[in-house]
Amino acid sequence: LSTWNSVPQGPPDAILGVSEAFKKNTSPKKMNLGVGAYRDDAGKPYVLTSVKKAERIMIDNNMDKEYAGITGVPSFTKAAAALAYGDDSPAIKENRLAIAQSISGTGALRMGAEFINAWFPHAKNVIVPNPTWGNHIPIMKNAGLALEKYTYFDKQTNGLNIDGMLEDLHKAPKNTVVLLHACAHNPTGVDPTKEQWDQISKVIKEREHFSFFDMAYQGFASGDCTRDAYALRKFVDEGHQVVLAQSFAKNMGLYGERVGSFSIVCADEQEKARVDSQLKIIIRPMYSNPPIHGAHIVSTVLNSPELKKEWLGEVKTMADRIITMRHQLRNHLENDFNSKKSWNHITDQIGMFCFSGMTPEQVTSIKNDWHVYLTQDGRISMAGISSANVKYLAEAIHNVTK
Ligand SMILES: Cc1ncc(COP(=O)(O)O)c(CNOCC(=O)O)c1O
Prior knowledge:
Layout: H1 14-24, E1 31-32, H2 49-60, H3 74-85, H4 90-93, E2 97-103, H5 104-119, E3 125-130, H6 136-142, E4 146-151, E5 153-154, E6 159-160, H7 162-171, E7 177-181, H8 194-206, E8 210-215, H9 225-228, H10 230-237, E9 243-247, E10 259-265, H11 269-287, H12 293-302, H13 305-336, H14 344-348, E11 353-355, H15 360-370, E12 372-373, E13 379-381, H16 390-401
Helix pairs in contact: 2-12, 2-13, 3-12, 7-8, 8-10, 13-16, 15-16
The structure holds 4'-deoxy-4'-acetylyamino-pyridoxal-5'-phosphate.
């Protein structure tokens, strides 16, 4: 009998399964609205010019391939922290921000969950939005945390159910870890307003909850890195000792380079040193030390004023293209196909995704009858839309929803 005889067939990943089905389709009109990766208006992946320039500089510098330290490339983590928390962050100025490079955002989330499981001084409970990025659930559970969901999306309005969210945050046991998407919520595209963030901060403070921010889209949501970091920075200003999972996959187009960071706001320099030592103890037996190439790209871009300026322009261009597609899609639905349904949520939502409100049956119909592929929850990855196919998509959505 084979050693692996008892290994069962696992379920396919909901998101990647969509791309597999898309690849098998032969229609010239087919559209892949599944995977959350940016495409330009020609439908092609986009390597940023600022990234390519940084790589040329790195080659000219004849960089070696030595190991990075356990917590990664220092010039990267320093620049990443400033981008997230702000150049004038007191936590950074007072040297009390512990930060480690991670295997992109996923690695940061797992590192954070492992750290919480090891050192959080209360019950290891985490609550995540309903719905949330699918991978959040196994990441937290596999690290040993007890996971529950809090109300987030409102099916009636395709927006935020703020009252339901605040009620669930209030009901959760004291000292619960609350996972928060800093901007560009995945899969709904629904973000709290500034006023709503202030309400959320207040309840979290009252219940002495702990905030775990996931910021995978800074700059990619509104086109403005400062604007997209509002919630994170406001919480820190208000005295929350947050932790942050940061990713450069989308905003710098570094998907496969796996560049991210995990950071912890500490009380003082001495505490930061102790926390740092425990992060190293978690990382060492996990993957020893992180890949250096992507970290050097981010460091080169962020530490060069002109490359950083070029990058900020490019991330705004990507965000603006998505926002333009939102307005065109809504406009076609309302004015070309005279849909009688309300589509304001297409332009009210922000970031990579639009939670269309299409039912699983409608998702199946739009796939079978119109060759449009998206996840069963009705999430549309907006980057799959271009000026060439936006009207076709509107026609397809109208026909399956009327
Ligand atoms: C909210 C969130 N956190 C974290 C991550 C982690 O991304 P990475 O590990 O690539 O940095 C992602 C990446 N999502 O992937 C796109 C999709 O849902 O189709 C994410 O959406």
